[in-house]
Amino acid sequence: MSWTVSYTETAAKAIRKLDPQVKARVRAAIDALREDPHRGKSLQLTLKGLYSWRTGDWRILYRIEAQKIQILVITVGHRREVYDRIRELLK
What we know:
Layout: E1 4-7, H1 9-16, H2 20-35, E2 41-42, E3 51-55, E4 58-65, E5 70-78, H3 82-90
């Protein structure tokens, strides 16, 4: 079963800003998540309910919406900054 993927405006903007090589890796990783969204790491504490999928030094943070068979990509970013960014978005 293939899940549908939707993007927040934050995620779409972050992906547009990526270098072409990184963008291709991120898109390939998102395509892999369509087949099994639970392969990502489940986040804890203040980020509970979100998942993180790693592709090199880049992270894709997403939420699984099982009732809609959908993956909502919240944001994409470098591992140094993405977790701080998501905490700011969730405030």
